[in-house]
Amino acid sequence: MSSEVKVPTLGESVSEATIGEWLKQPGDPVALDEPIASLETDKVSVEVPSPVAGVMGAQTAAVGDTVEVGAVIATIEEGGVSQEVKDSAKESVEKMTEEAAESSSNDNVTLSPAVRRAVLEHGVDPSSIKGTGKDGRLTKEDVLEAAKAKESGEDKSASAPAASSAPSGERREERVKMTRMRQTIAKRLKSAQEEAALLTTFNDVDMSAVIETREKYKDLFAKKHGIKLGFMSFFAKASCLALRDIPSANAYIEGEEIVYHDYVDISVAVSAPNGLVVPVVRDAHAKSFAQIELDIADFGKRAKDGTLTMEDMKGGTFTISNGGVFGSLMSTPIINPPQSAVLGLHRIEDRVVVVDGEMVIRPMMYIALSYDHRLIDGREAVTTLKIIKDAIEDPTRLLIDL
């Protein structure tokens, strides 16, 4: 007996998705509720569970296909199937995925587009790499680590200049269709540039006080709360302080009206395998440092695992993006519509500054606030960033609400 596998409900206003990866192939045993496919939506990846226990049957959609909610994408043969049925199902899926299989350097390994691209760029054998992703699947990070190991083990003479400037060896190009998430990111960012009057103001922050506070209390904090005390909770609380005094930075334009919030839901930009996602720390103004750190750590882990949900992404009144973790010194972040402001953090580096008439070396960070000038005036934007700067340089302000 066959059971149909249908595209599940994906969330409010989401009517279709893209087949990102088949986690089970025809003939594979499948347990009840075991994920058999990964779907890519505009915001997150969603796993499709098996409705019954049995054996994976035919797949009616290939990786990269767009499917609507409720559409049948596969069948599960309950209680097992004959070898003839297995072979037939395998043959059908092989025809659909022949082109994808050819672009993979190993036919026995199922690779996502990002992983496949990394394999081709670095010339590594995916079958020789142990995957650390879910169910042992390869991740892009696995490929990059393998490439580093390969380079460190190569003969140093291989790095010597070539005698001829003419290209040698095989030169490849690959065209990979943008994921649905990447398409959505592109559209939203372009829309933000076209609709909003974007402007960015900058300042720099002496991180000495925060660094000293973390160093002084890190062990006690970790012991009590089970999480490390990071920089993000300081900036989140400092932002809440600023947004209370400058409510326009925590508002957005809807038609001819301005919508203000008496709460702060902070969207935190997190890097995921398929692109940047912005899960929301809700009611950040009412949360402790520890709870904010726990929320952010949970988002980071689930972004890497691909288990963030639509609900995690909904809402958000203000965004914090930390490019410093990638080494960025300065940037002009783009607002996350319909929000009107985004705080950009950057790397910390020792710089010479003048304090009380003397030159001293301090750990400094450039911070940036991009904002919609239709709603936020320059004075308000500069004041917002100055309040954040003052709170970080003197964290006591966060405790006494100054």
Short description:
The chain is an alpha+beta fold. 34% of the residues lie in helices and 25% in strands. The strands form 5 sheets. Strands 9, 12, 15, 16, 17, 18 and 19 form a 7-stranded mixed sheet that branches. The protein has a 4-stranded antiparallel sheet with strand order 1-8-6-3. A 4-stranded antiparallel sheet has the order 5-4-2-7, with no helix packed on it.
Q: Which architecture of the largest domain would the CATH scheme give at its second level?
A: 2-Layer Sandwich
Radius of gyration: 25 Å
Shape: globular
Tally of domains: 3
**What would CATH call the class of the largest domain?**
Alpha Beta
- Look at the structure and name the CATH superfamily of the largest domain: Chloramphenicol acetyltransferase-like domain
Give an overview in words.
The chain has 402 residues and is α+β, with helices and mostly antiparallel strands. The chain is 34% helix and 25% strand. The chain has three domains: 2-103, OB fold (Dihydrolipoamide Acetyltransferase, E2P); 109-150, Dihydrolipoamide Transferase (Irregular), CATH 4.10.320; 197-400, Chloramphenicol Acetyltransferase (2-Layer Sandwich). The strands form five sheets. Strands 9, 12, 15, 16, 17, 18 and 19 form a seven-stranded mixed beta sheet that branches. It has a four-stranded antiparallel beta sheet with strand order 1-8-6-3. A four-stranded antiparallel beta sheet has the order 5-4-2-7, with no helix packed on it. Strand 13 and strand 14 (275-277) form a beta hairpin. The longest helix has 18 residues, at 208-225. The model is unreliable at 96-108 and 155-161 (pLDDT under 50).
